[in-house]
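quick one, 386 residues, struct below
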Amino acid sequence: MKLEDIMNFLEKKYNPELAEKWDNSGLIIGRKGSNVSAVIICLDITDDVIEQAIAARAELIISHHPLIFSEIKRITNDTVLGEKVLKLAENKIAVYSIHTNADSAAHGLSDYILEKLSLGGKKSVWLKNESDPESGLGRILELKKEDNVYNISKAVKEKLNLKNKNIIWYSINDESADIYAANIEYKNRESHYEVVKNGESLGKFRLSIPGEHNISNSLGVIYLAHEFLCDMDKVKEYLYNFRGANRRYQILYDKSIKIIDDYAHHPTEITATINAAKKIETGKITVVFQPHRYSRTNFFLNEFAESLKLADEVYLLPIYSAEEENIYNISSEKLAELIGGNTRVYSEEEISDRVLNDNSNENVYLFMGAGSISRIANTIKNKLPL
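---
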C-alpha cells in the first residue's frame, strides 16, 4: 500500500482543515509515493517508539501528537528532536500525525471517549466548525446530579481499561473520603484544619495561602507523603512555608492598598479566588478582570457574570482575543450588563488612573485573567510608592 493511500483514508475521517491554526497535523516526514507494509501507532514519538518501528521494519509511524510543532532551522544530532528526525530518515520511516483534527472530527477522539464512558446525559459540540457543525474542538456532556469526580474517575478507569490505577478520594466536606479536612478555621490570614486519613487523624495543618481550594489541593500531597512514610512534621512545615505558585493569589503590593495578581480565567476559579479573598481580606474587594478569548467568554457568559457578582466592585477590560476572530459578536460590555451595578469596561490607562489615585487604606484590587492582565497589574505596582 502506498503512503498516499493511507493519508487519503485518514484525511476522509479526520479532515486536516479541522486542525487548529497552531497545530502541525499531517505528513511530517516522508514521501507520499513510498510503500508501506507495517505501521506503528502511538501517542508521542519517543525514542522507544522509534526503536520499535525499526525492529518491526515499519515504514510509517502514525502519532497523535506531532513530532515537530514549529519551524526548525537545522537538523543535527546535537538536539533530541534532530536525533529523532535523523534516525527516522536514515531508516526510511515516515511520520504522519492526526492531532486536533482527530480531537474535533465527528466520531473522532472526543466522541470516542464519551461513547466509551457511557455516562449518559445530553451531549453538545463545543466551538463548532462552521463547515461541519457535528465537528468542533470539544464535547460538553450534561452530567446527572449523582455524578461526581469520584464516579467519573471510576468510569474512566473501568471503561478505558486503565489497569493498576488507584483512585483516591479527598474532600473538604465528605467524611467518607479516603482523606478529608475537618474543623476548618481562618485565623490571621491563615487556614487551619485537621486532616483525617482512613479514620486516623494526622494532626493539625496550616496554610499561609487562602482558600478552600488550596486546602483541598494540600490533601492529595498529604496523602501521598503519608503513604511514602515522610516525616509529617516536615510536611506540615513545608506546606505552611509554601507561598503559592506564580500568579496564584500573588500579592504584588500591600501598603495603603493591596494589589493581588491571579491567573483565574474560568468561572469556577474566579469564584474560588473571590471567596478566598472574602474570608481573609478586610477591605473592599475590587476585581479587575480581563476576559480571555471570545469563544470562552461567549460560552461561559452567564457563569462569568454570576461569579464576578461576588466581588464588591468589578472593573472589566476589553476581551483579550489570543488571536481569535470575534465570530460570536461578544464583548466585555455585554458581560458588564449581566453583572449589573456599577460595572463598566475601562481601558488599561483608566484602570491605572483609578488604582493609582485610590487614597483609601484597605482597598484590595484583585487582578484576574490569562491575557496581559498580569503585565498591567505589575505596571501599576511599579508606579506605587515603595
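Residues 212-227 form the longest helix (16 residues).
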